[in-house]
């Protein structure tokens, strides 16, 4: 079994595309996932699946959401191993003075085009 975190984009934000966490958990149960955990109304779900192809699994979850709730959303899927690598590779921890509670991570569905990354590299952001 592989542990995953699914992050649903644009759900329960601004009063649109509402999903109750109980209903979302029920959907994941119906998909034969195990050890399902949700957190408040975040629509982030931690679960385990025997499927190790995250691309197919992502598509499977998106299709199930569309069929069950009647709207589409993008699912960002990360494995437990990917999350652990994210934490271990954090350049601001450990031994730094930054408050870990104020650190943020942004997940992208695809690698950004190089022209956008270059713009970030030259951007003057001060203390950020």
Q: How many structural domains? A: 2
CATH homologous superfamily of the largest domain, by name?
A: SP0830-like domains
Number of DSSP strand runs = 4
**How does the major sheet shape up?**
4 strands, antiparallel
Tell me the Rg in angstroms: 17 Å
Q: What is the average of the pLDDT values?
A: 84
- Helical residue percent band: 25-40%
- CATH architecture descriptor name of the largest domain: 2-Layer Sandwich
**Low-confidence blocks of residues:** none
CATH class of the largest domain, named: Alpha Beta
Q: What name is given to the CATH topology of the largest domain?
A: Alpha-Beta Plaits
What is the N-to-C order of secondary-structure elements (H for helix, E for strand)? EHEEHEHH
Topology at a glance:
Layout: E1 2-8, H1 21-30, E2 34-38, E3 44-49, H2 54-69, E4 75-79, H3 80-88, H4 114-122
Antiparallel strand pairs: 1-3, 1-4, 2-3
Give a written overview of the molecule.
There is one protein chain. The protein is α+β, with helices and mostly antiparallel strands. It folds into 2 domains: 2-86, Alpha-Beta Plaits; 92-122, no CATH class. It is built from 4 helices and 4 strands; from the N terminus they run E-H-E-E-H-E-H-H. The protein has a 4-stranded antiparallel sheet. It is globular. The mean pLDDT is 84.
